[in-house]
Design brief:
Distance between the termini: 59 Å
Bound molecules: zinc ion
Strand order of the largest sheet: 7-8-11-1-12-13-14-15
Number of helices: 15
Largest sheet: 8 strands, mixed
């Protein structure tokens, strides 16, 4: 496509229009409280048999009363605070009335016009180094409904999920591409884990989202009719679905058609969108204030305490890392992908006196790979920051060479022993004795007359092969730099 400003006339004589997508997201995040929102049933039923974590309250039996779980209110407020929403001192529960088999009460307790969070935003960093401000339009707490499982000729109901606490939030239509939408979901998932309010495990349905998608001419400010893609539970599938919908809308408009406000379902297997039945409008829900519950109140002191208890947030930490430690933004991004990893990095810097950049490289290049191979989380490692600091220092001092250091990272974790002890027991110390290095070099030269002749006839690259031979003879312990210098000297 051509850029705006130097638009060219198409061969058909028609100007090519450049489009931009306008995307808003609606996200549900399951809070990680022990019990449900209005009863003492276990909230997390993952892996449990159907209908085993239920009681008269969450299944809506007559004569029962809901009791709000304070932890849900605090975690909801905590998430609101982390999104720069105003935490309201008084908010209300409302009844959202609709009939569906997996909603035994016939209504869902949610929040409507006066919810726990008001406003808010995320300054989302984009690939090109700029940021996109994504505003939060709504943020409230509510209970989840149950699950309907469709089997041939049968419909099965599992009420375990009834009353599981959720935060629902809706963004303004501020995102401009499928990739930006994916980046936003990615950030939100990280944030929820970072502040400890949700596992946000999308595979287990603990975070799911819908996307509202429309297109318009690039630079325009109008909002065109939008479609809604429902129930996406993976970032990658969401990205694909939104991309496909943007493409479909452009094709439709280019062909002279109009976009209708459909609700769409993404089929992950066939990678196609299909139309769902039309959706109820808000008025159909007949919202009213929940008569069985008092307003939610949080006094100023409590709100202050909640805000002060928030840790440094991921984006702020990422920016601080680049400034304070002189590492690239890519490195800072990798190191702040989760909070424990970034804490590990700072503990490592507390133990290691060299350059932060060197420590960052060891963490990214060696430790992350090791964790991945062994399937371990950072808090499960035997290789704590002080031990990794020892290894890097041994390399910096020249006590062991770099490749021995890399092996030592793995050995320390696998053998669960102090790195210095392993170096001693296995005799891994770097061979720096020039007499010994020279002796090995001479052996290698004597044993490989062909390669030596090649080197001396001008094939300088052969030196690498000879260095390799000497390194192998030394059991990988020789100082490679000293080997190179010695070989050059002996062969000149
Ligand atoms: Zn219950």
């Amino acid at each position: 496509m051509v850029k705006r400003g130097d638009e060219q006339t198409h061969s058909s004589g028609r100007n090519m229009t450049q489009y931009e997508a306008v995307i808003g997201l609606e996200i549900h995040i399951q809070l990680n409280t022990n019990s449900k929102i209005f009863c003492s049933c276990k909230a997390d039923s993952w892996g449990d048999p159907p209908n085993t974590n239920i009681c008269p309250v969450c299944t809506g039996q007559p004569g029962v009363l809901p009791v709000p779980n304070q932890a849900v209110i605090e975690k909801g407020a905590r998430l609101a605070g982390a999104l720069h929403s105003e935490i309201l001192p008084v908010s209300y529960f409302d009844r959202k009335n609709y009939f569906y088999p997996d909603l035994p009460k016939g209504y869902q307790i949610s929040q409507y016009d006066i919810a726990i969070g008001k406003g808010g935003y995320v300054d989302l960093p984009l690939e090109d180094g700029t940021t996109r401000q994504v505003r939060i339009e709504k943020l409230h707490i509510e209970e989840d409904a149950g699950k309907t499982i469709h089997k041939p000729g049968r419909r099965l109901l599992d009420f375990n999920r009834c009353g599981v606490p959720l935060v629902e939030m809706v963004t303004s239509p501020d995102l401009r591409s499928a990739d930006e939408a994916a980046a936003f979901i990615h950030y939100l998932r990280k944030l929820a884990r970072w502040i400890g309010v949700s596992d946000a495990d999308m595979e287990k349905g603990k975070m799911r989202f819908d996307a509202n998608v429309s297109i318009r001419e690039k630079g325009a400010t109008i909002l065109n009719p939008k479609t809604e893609i429902k129930n996406m539970n993976s970032i990658e599938h969401g990205r694909e679905a939104i991309k496909a919908e943007i493409k479909r809308q452009i094709k439709e408009v280019e062909a002279g058609g109009i976009i209708k406000s459909w609700t769409l379902d993404w089929n992950e297997e066939t990678k196609t969108l299909s139309k769902m039945r039309s959706k109820e409008t808000e008025a159909d829900y007949r919202y009213f204030k929940e008569p069985d519950l008092l307003p939610i109140t949080l006094d100023q002191e409590k709100i202050q305490e909640l805000l002060e208890s928030l840790p440094e947030l991921p984006l702020a930490r990422e920016i601080r890392f680049t400034e304070e430690y002189q590492i690239s933004s890519k490195e800072a991004q990798l190191l702040t992908q989760d909070r424990s990893l970034s804490d590990y990095f700072e503990k490592l810097l507390g133990e290691y006196s060299g350059k932060p950049k060197i420590a960052a490289n060891w963490l990214i290049n060696d430790l992350l790979g090791l964790m991945n191979d062994l399937g371990l989380a950072i808090d499960e490692l035997f290789l704590t920051p002080d031990k990794l600091a020892q290894i890097i220092t041994l390399v910096d001092e020249g006590s062991i060479n770099t490749s021995t250091g890399k092996d030592l990272v793995r050995k320390t974790q696998e053998q669960a022993k102090d790195p210095r002890m392993i170096v001693e027991q296995e005799g891994l110390a770097q061979l720096t004795d020039s007499g010994e290095i020279e002796a090995i070099c001479q052996e290698v030269i004597a044993a490989n007359p062909d390669q030596v002749a090649q080197y001396q006839s001008g094939k300088g690259g052969v030196i690498g092969w000879l260095i390799g031979q000497v390194m192998a003879q030394s059991g990988g312990k020789a100082d490679p730099q000293a080997v190179r210098v010695t070989l050059r000297k002996l062969l000149s």
